Amino acid sequence: MSELNTFLFNILLFSLFFNVGISLYGIFARPSLIKKIIALTIFSDTANVLAIAVGYRGWPSPSQPPIPPVITTTEPSIDDLTWFARQAVDPLPQALVLTAIVIGLAVTLFLVFLTLQVYRLYGTTDVRRVARLRG
Amino acid sequence: MRIKKFLVLSSLIILVLTLSLAFTKGALGHYPLPLPGVRLLASWYLFTTLNPQYPVFTAMSPEAVTAIVWDYRGLDTLFETAVFFLAIVGALALMRGISLKSALNNASNRVGDGGLSLICKTAARLLTPLIIVVSASIALHGHLTPGGGFQGGSAAAVAPLLVLVIFSVYFLLSKGVSEKPMLILRTVGLVGIYLTALAAVLIGLFTGLNAYVFQNQPKPDAPLGLPAQISGALISGSLLFFNVFEYLAVAGGFTLVFILLSIPEEVVKSFIGGETHE
To answer: What is the three-class DSSP state of A70?
Structure first.
């Protein structure tokens, strides 16, 4: 069981690494600014999932998966809290990813506005044609 | 061409599977992933997030993620809100001077018709209030269950986006959701965030007691603090207020940007003018 868990987790990690590579290829190689923005969002989402995966933990026991970092009672005892701290996943990467998602959304919107402005002024979003323009 | 794509894709998948298998079997050194435990810092966060026995460290919130976002690492989130603020200011600066007011007068007859089919419009009429209610629930329960101000605000911004796509931007403006109210909503949210961050300090100024910026629960040298409970209901001190104000700021900001993005090209062209490139 733990072998299978490790295998699935490794598949997740390697898929994320390859996803980073593919999205970087998209950012560098695609000429259209819109395609670059799409690849950038894929890149940031991949980085976020990778951060969440860093905060994941091994199963506390073979039949018990880790639990989310949320206490389900409002007046927990010390025993509850000790059990919770031994079962729950790391909340810190999730908090950082939460802020990263909002920043990513805001920056994406700003880039979309810049691309829109480029299209309005130059009539194209192809970076090769924008680079050839003079004045 | 199709065979080439298929070959590239399948070879990537086979590479991922082989590497994963090699790591699992220890062919490239033994790495027992995922690690069996979390770091000491994470255990500490989990242990103290709702722990009245350690009043100095606790954030009094059962949701460890919100406790970290708005209490343990609150300054991070404050500056992250500043980045969000600046990105929307940048978008507004690019669209400065462009207004839909004149186009709305010309196109007042276009409010009713246009848009997608009757099925979409009926579904949108039913869904839009539900989205608002669900997003408000996400934000208001942010200190108890997964969710919070950002998530609720982003979910709330889906409702005007739905109306924009299914009806039209003129329909949304005729319902009173235009740039200026959204700007006011966003400003109210941001001012609320800063006032909540300074709440303990402001109370300390009047009572003459020591207090810190972003203080939530009482500390040994700063006996002030926001109440963790109000008549038995857990509000986790400042976390509820942060979530509510962040909800307003994020919902207003994103709605504002969606409205600006949906201004038709001919309206924008009439404003920017200048020489055109073909």
So the answer is: strand
CB contacts, 8 Å: B250 with chain A: 102
- Within 8 A of A68 by CB-CB distance, chain B residues are 146
Contact B148 A114 (CB under 8 A): no
pLDDT digits (tens, 9 = 90+) for A84-103: 888 889 999 999 998 888 88
Q: What CATH number was assigned to the domain covering residues A2-55+90-132?
A: 1.10.287.3510
Question: What is the per-residue DSSP string for A104-132?
Answer: HHHHHHHHHHHHHHHHHHHS--BHHHHHH
Q: What does the alpha-carbon distance between residue B212 and residue B225 come to, in Å, rounded to a whole number?
A: 9
**B22 Cβ contact list (under 8 Å, min separation 6):** B28
Could A109 and B91 be called an inter-chain contact, meaning their C-beta atoms sit closer than 8 Å? yes
Residue pointed to by tokens 């993005």: B261
Specify whether the CB–CB gap between B247 and B190 falls below 8 A. no
Residues from chain A contacting residue B65 (CB–CB below 8 Å)? 69-70, 91, 94-95, 98
Tell me the pLDDT tens digit for each residue of A10-68: 899 999 999 999 999 999 998 999 999 999 999 999 999 999 988 888 888 778 888 99
CA-nearest residue to B150 within chain A is A102
CB–CB of B48/B57 below 8 Å? Answer: yes
ipTM entry:
0.83
Q: Which of A13, A75, A109 to mutate to test the interface with B (most CBs of B within 10 A)?
A: A109
Mutate to test the interface with B, among A102, A122, A126, A130 (most CBs of B within 10 A): A102
Question: pTM for the full model?
Answer: 0.87
Report in angstroms the alpha-carbon separations of B72 from A36, A75, A116, A117, B59: 36, 20, 39, 40, 8
